[in-house]
Design goal:
Structural class: alpha+beta
Strand content: 15-25%
Shape: elongated
Strand order of the largest sheet: 8-7-9-10-22-21-18-15
Distance between the termini: 69 Å
Number of strands: 23
Length: 489
């Protein structure tokens, strides 16, 4: 025992050993400090999104409008980033981290449907089974129990490349879509749009693009089946989307009562819709509207009235009425109608009705295929002239209530992605709804981010880029000035 104590005492007094032990402890301490600093820095970066966005388009950085929305947020919102490891979008994930850091009420998580298959069924009732799938975002507010699903179609802005003839993704609208979805799920009340069902109208799958536009503008959509005993709310607009079967007498009475109570109509029609729906057409005639059977085709010589070499792709002119003046003032009047139906005013307008054209064709004719001639060439019996393809009607009842009706003889402006991305169909839709509903839609002025980097031009060089290029050149020049006089030393 004495020998062991002596040996330990001698070992401790050994200078080399003490120096080596100190070095080891110092190294271990430095490593520990660096590890703790790394953990702290990583925690702070995740909490406050301190990572700098060096991308050319700032795709992972939110702007002032989003920051203002998040600053006023009063309800919790959780964002489920639903994907698999193979489909995860790094840009979207980085942007979600900044949303999380910008507000304590925003949280997000990445969900792998392989590991958590129950998640999709959890929101199927609220969102519809057709909407929930792999590779999407689900924005959910627990307090309102309202949810919104976003897919690539919601934040990819497509453009038509005339040189290649293909539709390409020109920009991304991640921030706009996410911020508007946050507003949608957190608002206490939402303006409601009723959609009539029970007559073969467009269903949710067929009208998905239209419904996405309206949902993105924070309208709550509600399908109503009057034939099944469901009642209409005159404070909410009623949408009728291309009915294929007629209204019953009881339904027509219910719709007339809805109008007399001040209810408004938004109607989409198509040239292929049946002309034998008597009660439905009676509803239109009560607003002074007659349907012209057949397809509107522009006359070949009026080249400014149709697109390219396709006379069925009409370029209608927007008429200046109260509902369209904001669009005309903003230059948002470019629309394309493919396969349009025309209308005309009744010979004698019903009492209290005022009718105004919204969209007019150029010189055209209505090809009435019901005459048995298959050709699209004009036939002697076809009507020709300039036709309204969209109408606005105001009707005042004896009780003092006023009802409005808007009808468009086309559907593709709100269903076709090319038209949605390359024409003013979305502003047109939202303005018509706003004029009927009397409430402004949510359409945040957040610009999309370019998907393709523009070619480098001298005028586009930022000061930071110029400094990063010039600094190494200045160092090389300075070294040359110092070393050149000493080259013979």
């Amino acid at each position: 025992m004495k020998r062991l104590k002596a040996w330990l005492h001698q070992l401790i007094r050994n200078r080399k050993l003490r120096s080596g032990a100190f070095s080891v402890l110092l190294t271990a301490g430095v490593i520990l400090v660096l590890l703790l600093a790394g953990v702290l820095a990583d925690s702070l970066e995740k909490r406050f999104a301190l990572q700098v966005d060096f991308s050319f388009n700032g795709a992972t950085t939110q702007g002032e409008i989003t920051n203002a929305v998040l600053a006023q947020l009063e309800k919790n919102v959780h964002i489920y980033n639903v994907n698999t490891a193979a489909t995860e979008n790094a840009t979207l994930t980085a942007l979600l981290a900044r949303y999380d850091a910008a507000s304590p009420l925003i949280t997000y998580s990445r969900e792998d449907t392989v590991k958590n298959p129950v998640l999709l069924s959890q929101f199927a009732d609220a969102l519809g089974e057709n909407q929930v799938g792999v590779d999407c975002l689900i924005i959910h507010c627990p307090q309102t129990d309202r949810a919104r699903v976003l897919t690539q179609d919601d934040y990819y802005v497509r453009t038509y490349d005339e040189t290649t003839g293909y539709i390409t993704v020109g920009s991304f609208s991640y921030e706009k879509s996410i911020t508007e979805a946050i507003l949608y799920v957190t608002q206490d009340t939402l303006p409601t749009l009723q959609i009539l069902t029970g007559h073969g109208e467009m269903n949710a799958e067929q009208a998905v693009s239209l419904e996405n536009i309206l949902s993105s503008a924070n309208y709550l959509l509600k399908r109503v089946n009057v034939a099944a005993g469901e009642t209409l709310d005159p404070d909410s607009l009623l949408m009728i989307l291309c009915p294929q079967y007629d209204l019953s007498d009881q339904e027509l009475t219910a719709l007339e009562a809805f109008a007399q109570a001040g209810g408004d109509f938004f109607i989409l029609s198509s040239y292929s819709d049946p002309t034998t729906t008597q009660n439905y057409h009676a509803l239109l005639r009560s607003y002074g509207i007659e349907v012209l059977p057949g397809l509107v085709i522009a006359k070949a010589e009026d080249t400014a009235s149709y697109l390219s070499d396709s006379p069925i792709y009409l370029l209608p002119s927007m008429q200046p009425i109260d509902a369209t003046l904001p669009l005309i003032a903003n230059g948002q009047y470019q629309l394309v109608l493919c396969g349009a139906r025309a209308f005309q005013s009744s010979a004698i307008l019903p009492p209290g009705v005022a009718l105004s054209p919204v969209l007019m064709t150029g010189q055209a004719y209505v090809r009435d295929y019901f005459d048995g001639v298959v050709s699209s060439d004009q036939q002697p019996t076809d009507l020709e002239g300039r036709f309204p393809v969209a109408l606005w009607a105001d009707k005042i009842y004896d009780n003092g209530n006023q009802s409005h009706l808007f009808i468009l003889g086309e559907t593709t402006p709100f269903l076709d992605y090319w038209m949605i991305d390359n024409t003013d169909s979305v502003p047109f839709l939202l303005q018509m709804i706003r004029a009927l509903q009397g409430q402004d839609p949510v359409n945040l002025d957040i610009l999309p981010k370019n998907a393709v980097r523009e070619g480098l031009r001298l005028g586009s060089l930022t000061p930071a880029v110029i400094v990063s290029i010039m600094l190494p050149l200045l160092v090389i020049l300075g070294a040359a000035l110092v070393l050149f006089p000493r080259k013979n030393l």
